[in-house]
Amino acid sequence: MVLGPSTNIPLLDQHTLTMTHKQPPAIPKELNHLIYLNVEHRVLICPDDKCRKAVRPSAFVEHLRVQHKTPLSDRRRVQEYVGTFGGDCDYSTIELPPDKSRPQPMILIFDGFQCRLCPTRPSDASTHRPSTSTSKKCMKVHGNKKHKRYRVLNNKLFKRVRLQSWF
Ligand SMILES: [Zn+2]
Ligand SMILES: [Zn+2]
């Protein structure tokens, strides 16, 4: 998703999902350093500074073992929690906040660019978002290929935005 000018962030992809709106249970306090729940979007996040990204519920315990060498006793407790969480999601089903929304907590923010030429349909913003990338070169290629604009000033093609991506 794309964050607004210095305050807003857009997500990179555009998958939406009909979510079940049952509230997931809160994370037990003693697990706070191992797992973080984004309640609004029902997304489990690895809060480790190396990660700060979403991890699929079904893959969470394995993620802790492989990436962080989390001790078995802690992993068992996380497993218990994940078992009560219900449902699973990955990048193709995860719900994206609308563009220009406030940054999602915990998730890393990085600088990127957003196409100025992609059409936006405000009525249907969740399914159509302008292309974004962290690479100027990719944005130029996108402008050439998709919009047939050549030798155009960068700032006519794209603008700077702040981005977040669940994964
Ligand atoms: Zn992690
Ligand atoms: Zn475009």
Can you put this structure into words, describing what you see?
This protein is an alpha+beta fold and 167 residues long. The protein has 2 domains: 69 residues, no CATH class; 56 residues, no CATH class. It contains 4 helices and 8 strands, in the order βββββααββααβ. The strands form 2 sheets. A 5-stranded antiparallel beta sheet has the order 2-1-8-6-7. It has a 3-stranded antiparallel beta sheet with strand order 3-4-5, with no helix packed on it. α1 packs antiparallel against α2. About 8% of the residues have low confidence. One zinc ion binds next to α3.
Quick overview:
By secondary structure, this protein is of the alpha+beta class. It has helices at residues 60-68, 72-85, 136-147, 154-157; strands spanning 2-3, 9-10, 36-38, 43-46, 53-54, 109-115, 132-133, 158-164. The protein folds into 2 domains: 17-85, no CATH class; 109-164, no CATH class.
